[in-house]
Design goal:
Oligomer: heterodimer
Largest sheet of chain A: none
Number of domains of chain A: 2
Strand content of chain B: under 5%
Number of domains of chain B: 1
Largest sheet of chain B: none
Number of helices of chain B: 12
Shape of chain B: globular
Strand content of chain A: under 5%
Number of helices of chain A: 7
Structural class of chain A: mainly alpha
Distance between the termini of chain B: 44 Å
Order of helices and strands of chain B: HHHHHHHHHHHH
Helix content of chain A: over 70%
CATH topology of the largest domain in chain A: Four Helix Bundle (Hemerythrin (Met), subunit A)
Largest interface: A-B, 26 and 32 residues
CATH superfamily of the largest domain in chain A: NADH-ubiquinone/plastoquinone oxidoreductase chain 6, subunit NuoJ
Distance between the termini of chain A: 69 Å
Helix content of chain B: over 70%
CATH class of the largest domain in chain A: Mainly Alpha
Number of strands of chain A: 0
Radius of gyration of chain B: 20 Å
């Protein structure tokens, strides 16, 4: 085992462990903080695999924005300190879906790659990422940006009651 | 030089900068604010113009009792000051002081800096919620809204200069910098500096702390060493924002005799910008919450976007 293997394993354990805590913890807001740890460990995994840019994007977007928005929303509700007794979670179906998806993906990957050793790709420098995104992958990139734009417009319409009221009156 | 020695020197240099620079800035804040307000400031500690005031403060903080409120979420409450300080330590690691004088040169250093600075919001939310105090929570929610909003102009302004330089590496940006960028990138520089001030919650953007209405915002319940950590984070924040503005927009080590005195130019520019940050605190009243958000979304974001267009236009024409 190399150092990278050990790091991958350790970070994987942290990611999965804190991920399990997110769904099992009865402390509402703490779940959000466990999610921070889980996504941070995921960023660490990217870093070990040499995808530096993806790792920083993961931190910037998920930890710096998505989880913060989530925590922000939870804190605007009652969000008590300490365990909440009245949380109802369909534990068994959720466990079945989660374990099923995990096992299915593992089986799929094992079947697809058959333990073949592939040479590691070139390190993902910013230059190479840019060339790939704006060269080979420019169409998916543009389609995604249109998706985000429509989501943005939708959010504005939903949060502006004056716009909705005008449509209703006409 | 063996690897471990190299590593040791780098870590020692970063730790020294991390501990000394904020103390110097903090002392400067005491004295500059005092003189601007017609006072003399600390005069007794250390005998000469109170130079040891912050050292004395540090000793005082260590002696104070470390109180955790009874209803607080203890683990998260205690973790928050460390999470607040940690991102800045990482950022200082990547800031170039002189040509080749950087603790850890990175291909995409700018991206790392922006990503890691975003973690600061998590610390604010942690301390705010775990304190079990309504003032803390109010301050934390204000802080999160402010920091999320101002991250956008901050990133856009940084993107503009990265596009102009054609690289995401901080030393690379300084090398590509030319004096006429002072004019070309001026709107981005102003946007970056103002958004940076809001990111570190310095006056006039101290709505999350607002001591006249929220006691001390998300730091209300903290005492002793943990409170000192938050204070240290604030001063390191000043250093980091001043250093980033210097490196991105003011040409870092460029200046007369830059081959030998490059590091001195960087430090001088950092201190000049820190002085401006302190000056702002003395000069401007606190922005109200709605004024704060209005400034961000209606002025800074459009200016940053216009700057991006200008950067692309000049870049393609030349």
């Amino acid at each position: 085992m190399t150092v990278a293997d050990v790091l991958l394993l350790a970070l994987g354990v942290v990611a999965v462990g804190s991920g399990a805590l997110v769904v099992t913890s009865s402390h509402l807001v703490r779940s959000g903080f466990y999610l921070v740890v889980s996504l941070g460990a995921l960023a660490g995994l990217y870093l070990v695999l040499g995808a530096e840019l993806v790792a920083w994007v993961q931190i910037l977007v998920y930890i710096g924005a998505v989880v913060v928005l989530l925590l922000f929303a939870v804190m605007l509700t009652r969000a008590p300190i300490g365990p909440s007794a009245d949380l109802d979670r369909p534990a068994l179906p959720a466990a079945l879906v989660g374990a099923g998806a995990g096992l299915g993906l593992s089986a799929l990957f094992a079947d697809a790659f058959r333990w073949v050793r592939y040479p590691a790709p070139d390190p993902a420098t910013a230059e190479r990422m840019g060339e790939e995104i704006f060269g080979a992958w420019v169409l998916p990139f543009e389609v995604l940006s249109i998706l985000l734009l429509s989501a943005l417009v939708g959010a504005i319409i939903l949060s502006r009651p004056d716009l909705a009221a005008r449509e209703g009156s006409s | 030089m063996p690897l471990w020695l190299d590593l040791l020197i780098r870590i020692a240099a970063v730790m020294a900068g991390f501990l000394v620079l904020p103390l110097v800035i903090g002392q400067a804040e005491h004295k500059v604010m005092a003189h601007m307000q017609g006072r003399v400031g600390p005069m007794y500690a250390g005998a000469f113009h109170g130079w040891a005031q912050l050292v004395a403060d540090g000793v005082k903080f260590v002696q104070k009792e470390d109180i955790t409120p009874r209803d607080a979420d203890r683990t998260i409450f205690r973790l928050a000051p460390i999470v607040a300080l940690f991102p800045y330590l990482i950022v200082i690691l990547t800031i170039p002081i002189g040509p080749g004088l950087v603790a850890q040169p990175l291909d995409i250093g700018l991206f790392l800096v922006l990503a890691v600075l975003g973690i600061g919001v998590v610390a604010v939310l942690m301390s705010a919620w775990a304190s079990a105090n309504k003032y803390s929570l109010l301050g934390g929610v204000r802080g999160a809204a402010q920091m999320l909003g101002y991250e956008l102009p901050l990133v856009l302004a940084a993107a503009s200069v990265a596009m102009a330089a054609g690289t995401l590496s901080l030393p690379g940006i300084v090398e590509a910098w030319r004096p006429w960028w002072l004019v070309w990138q001026a709107p981005a520089a102003v946007v970056f500096f103002v958004a940076g001030l809001a990111e570190i919650r310095r006056p006039p953007f101290d709505m999350p702390i607002a001591d006249s209405e929220l006691v001390f915002g998300y730091m209300t319940e903290y005492t002793g060493l943990r409170f000192a950590f938050f204070l240290l984070a604030e001063y390191v924040g000043i250093v980091v924002i001043a250093a980033l503005t210097t490196v991105l927009f003011l040409g870092g080590w460029h200046g007369p005799f830059e081959d030998h005195l490059g590091w001195l130019w960087t430090l001088l520019k950092i201190f000049a910008l820190s002085f401006v940050i302190i000056w702002f605190r003395v000069t401007y009243p606190r922005l109200r919450e709605d004024q704060l958000q209005r400034l961000c979304w209606l002025i800074l974001v459009p200016v940053a976007l216009a700057q991006l267009v200008l950067t692309v236009a000049v870049k393609t024409l030349t």
